[in-house]
Amino acid sequence: MYLTAPQISALAQLLLQKGNWKGGQLVPSWWIEEMGKPRVEIPGDEKKALTHYAYHIKAGKEIFAAEGAFGQYLICFRDLPVAIGITAGAREYLAADICLKYIKEAVSEPCKEEQLEAAEKALRAKINSLSLVQPEGAFRTARQEVARLFDRKILFTENPRKIESAVLTKEGYRIKIEAVIDGEQKVLYAGYKAWKCNDLYPSDFTKRYHSVAYAMDAEALYLSVGLINTSYKEEYCLWVNSEDKVIATWRPNVTYLPEEPDMVWKFTGTFE
């Protein structure tokens, strides 16, 4: 399945309600009970929130959860009316333990009635302020060293993202990137510390939208990419060395590739 966090939450809510949805029994309640029972102990996880395997999910004393790659979770509490969907993009599988500790604590301490309105207002403000971290660097325009990257075609060596070539062009408050990626010509834009949405793969929902932002310092260009339909985020850094060669790094938040130190892959480029 390919689901967003709200969709995962809805599925979790269905399980929390023993298979009942808006008065209709979509899944037999006895099956929900059976699938969530601890079956086989997970070696070394006896102190974690999820201690056992159940039927295609994991189970603990107080919660059960479906667990996907890179921090994707469907979590249901057994004795609390709490269902959670998470698309984290994290290498550490700690979400269930964090939810058990902090969500349980929060739910167990109800907000006083006279503070409820203020609490809801604070929650809405927090949600509205959430954003992916912007790329580092304080400059919008290129200094002398970084300017060498622009208006020249760069041919890249083999790299994990299969970027074969790129031309960077400065257009006011944004950068135009004309790239050949795995044999396909792509055009995308990056905003200065502002996300620009690019529809790169209209026929493939899983990687369709790339949101890109940039920033610079005196020596390097930084690009951050958020793949909106997934939990993936990437960071690129490009600079030109004394031999007029482009040095590039790629740092994803998560990947199926064998990990490199600090999750950084380095490759190079030459000017055509």
From TrEMBL:
Q: Which InterPro entries match?
A: Beta-lactam/transpept-like (IPR012338)
Query: Which SUPFAM superfamilies would you find in this protein's record?
Result: beta-lactamase/transpeptidase-like
Name of this protein: Uncharacterized protein
**Which source organism?**
Blautia intestinihominis
